[in-house]
User: What shape does this take?
Amino acid sequence: MNQGRVWKYGDDVNTDVIFPGKYTYQPMEPAEMAEHALEDLDAGFAEAVQPGDIIVAGKNFGCGSSREQAATCLKAAGVAAIIAPSFSRIFFRNAINSGLPVIELAEGTDAIQTGDSVGIDFTAGVVEHDGRTYSFPPLPPEVLAILEDGGLIPHVKKVLNG
Amino acid sequence: MGMTFAQKILAAKAGLDSIDVGQIVEIEPDVCLSHDNTAAIAKKFAKIGVSSVKDPDKFVIVLDHTVPASEEKYAQNHKEIREFVQMNGIRSFYDVGVGICHQVLPEKGFALPGRLILGSDSHTTTYGAFGAFSAGIGRSEMAVLYATSRIWLKTPASFKMVIHGRLQDPVSAKDLILHIIGSIGADGALYKSVEYTGKAVEAMSIGSRMVLCNMAIEMGAKNGYCIPDEKTYAFLADRAEGEYTAVFPDEDAEYEQMLEFDASALGPQVARPHTVDNVSPVEDVVGIPIQQALLGTCTNGRMEDLRVAAKILEGRKVANDVRLLVLPASQEILLEALKEGVIDTLVRAGGMLLNPGCGPCLGAHQGVMAPGEATISTANRNFKGRMGSRDAEIYLGSPATVAASAVTGVITDPREFF
Assistant: This one.
């Protein structure tokens, strides 16, 4: 069971507020991207986030642009996982491809608040909060393999090199 | 049971007779698009350890997001992309000034019926207007396509949207798609393939169909689709890069939802800050002061958009305290608009002509806003901070609404000018 401290946000958190467009076409390493994470949603986040923290949000997390930095910056900031009732399609792929676990949790997110502690068991497909457990469909093995290798690029490199 | 467009094209690309919704297939896309993000993709590609791009003829690269470079770091980014293109023998490269990728791909004949197109840009959905299956992907996925030409896709469920009636001038496809997104929400078509049909879509120009498909992503869709017809084939006649075969949904295809809209009854619509689904009839927002008006982008920078704006601005002046920015979506459109006198009209009215490109839409350069300012824009997103300050506001509307508002300095119902 991975335990983490929660940052809670609402519905439709878009990629522009996660990682502003003005930085999108500047050459930048992940550590610098992390300094801008959630800049236009929660200006205090980048400084206060701790490795292992978990983002819990409302529906349609990551809607908008295809910019992969929206996932990369959160991963580099130390975010261990994002839990939401639904994710935008491109963000979902980008997160997996960046090695950042994303959990589609149908119920339970409403009760979780900033500062709460949440436990995640990826293999069993269970989220634990305040003595209650909520289950989610575990990711397919192909997708888990990408996460375990740390993202799509290292995964493909490994596959191509046999 | 028949198949939807998405099922049919994905089955064909995967070499299968039939395919189920939710089924994952590995396929080879026909065309892959990237833009100013190509240098970053090239760096990821280098990490895979493959020496050169597997099939360079599959890739189209267009520089459009921060063009021409406004800062040294952007100049360096463009330089690295040109070097990558040269080194890997990528022939379909369009440097700064040619236009916005989503306009350039159709103009250069890459957006064809029955093609499977993936782009590292969310508005790649635009090419559905030509009967292509086109969707956005991320940078890592594009890097892997450089290396292997292959990718996995999940077969989406489909929505059929039937648009009855006919749009009444100056109400446009932009008003219609804003109304649809406002009705079903920013996640209303999450992960779905959206097929637009009905008399109103049949009556639409290619440019208007592009508006519907461009903004499919704003309701979460994986792709949008319009049935190719004589208008499509006429547009492509002198452009198509190679042969193509159109793919049509079966008449007995199964749709997860069937949604119906009436175009005839629709008035102008505006999306208020800070989400695209925060849509109201223009009557609810008239009178709100704006400091900037943006006419352009991959959503509304085509001839029909510039023409309607020129019609409103002919013999009038942009309000004193308003900056009207005009960005034709491509060089081809700019030339046509010059020839037709449309640019003359817009500039005489006080509009400022900028080079074809994405411009202020993503807040990287050209016409960003200060805190407390408001823009009315023909773009597709009004997220907080997208056009500069996080304390500025973006309203989205049709080219007619933007032009009418530029004249009065407040959000205005364009029907007052018709």
